[in-house]
Amino acid sequence: MTKFFATVCLPPTAARKVPQAVAAVMAPYDINLTEDWNPVGQWDRWAIHASAGNAYLVLPPHDGDRRLVTASTVPRRKAELDVLGPLECYGGPRGLLDFDGMRSRAARRHDARLAAWNELTAAHPAASPLADFVARHEADPAGYSLADAKKEHLIQPLVQDVAQRAVAGDPHLDMSFLLNDPVAYFGQEPEETRLSSVQCAVPGFALITLDGSWTDADVDADGYWGRANRYLNNLDAEAVVLDLLCHC
User: Fold this and answer.
1) Which end of the chain has the lower number of beta carbons within 10 A, N or C?
2) Angstrom distance (rounded) from CA 22 to CA 169
3) Please, are residues 55 and 89 in contact by the beta-carbon 8 Å criterion?
């Protein structure tokens, strides 16, 4: 089971009708659509989703526009949407949304995350990535178990500090670092991780285009993020864009 974000594009659609329009677009990709396994199935449930601080940003002149998808423009019987922060929404017409602002927000967060990591590395001994411990296990699986490899990686003071900060709700070192190796992540070139953060700021893992086609970062591993950003940038101003949290 896995969760991922899918960015859905719709033709001009009133906010109150968006849930119904999304359901129609997503229907062909229901894993349970057929009696057997739907060969193009991608999800078994989904919901329109955003959270305060991570939602679509609204261009200031369009704040409060009723075409935006918000808790006040979509009847609760159609979708249970929470109130978000200032200049935030669940989506809406492309021309009302601040994609550049979302990318700038992602870049700022990356820079703050890197600064927090650099402070920790100055306070702790250098740590090794999990891959180094796994390599030791693979070289001697009988004498050094995979559980031992994971344990020795985790007990490194630097990794422990990151994990504790994530659990405590650190604004820069979030819960994703409990599942992913922070040493490997921050071992990448900062320019590359910053670019990746910016490229992921608008499109989700999957993109459903106006013609109903599905593509995602697995299907189009080499060029998905660049193509998805270009597609969204070039959408007609009235085309509606929003995100779904999908489960499969």
Assistant:
1) N
2) 33
3) yes
Answer for the pair 3, 54: CB distance below 8 angstroms, yes or no: no
Query: For residues 162 and 183, is the Cβ–Cβ distance under 8 A?
Result: no
Q: What is the DSSP string of 94-138?
A: GGGB-HHHHHHHHHHHHHHHHHHHHHHHHHS-----HHHHHHHHH
78-81: long-range pairs with CB below 8 Å, 24+: 78/16, 78/19, 78/20, 79/18, 79/19, 79/47, 79/48, 81/48
pLDDT exceeds 90 at position 220: no
Each residue's pLDDT tens digit, 100-141:
999 999 999 999 999 999 999 999 999 999 999 999 999 999
| First-last CA distance in the chain | 6
3-class state of residue 29 by DSSP: helix
Predicted model pTM = 0.90
54 pLDDT higher than 80 = yes
CB atoms under 10 Å from CB of 182, counted, come to: 23
How many Å apart are CA 193 and CA 111, to the nearest integer?
A: 10
| Burial label, 34 (beta-carbon count in 10 A; 0-12, 13-18, 19+) | exposed
